[in-house]
Known about the structure:
alpha+beta, five-stranded mixed β-sheet, 2 helices, 5 strands, disordered C terminus
Amino acid sequence: MTRLTFLPHPTACPEGKTIEAEPGASICDAALGAGIAIEHACEKSCACTTCHVIIRRGYGSLGAPEEKEEDMLDKAWGLEPESRLSCQAKVGREDLTIEIPRYTINLASEHH
């Protein structure tokens, strides 16, 4: 199991949270399964940027983003070199520290 540490976020996980995830699971699925309310307006189909995260530690352990993800990331608010869409980024074997950005450019979100 890989440890994912989510930094505090005002609504998704106000106090931060550390969870365990199986390698190969998407960061989004792992977060949702642990009760972290990460937005995912497109139902995890790589069609929006609501699940944008910044990998603060362990970025190199993730597989490279595909072109479709890179194209969507270009539209994300607060894009950084270590940004990923959590619906596309698969957990590897190295522990991750993850920041959920405070803002999103999407006007609609589905609360799941």
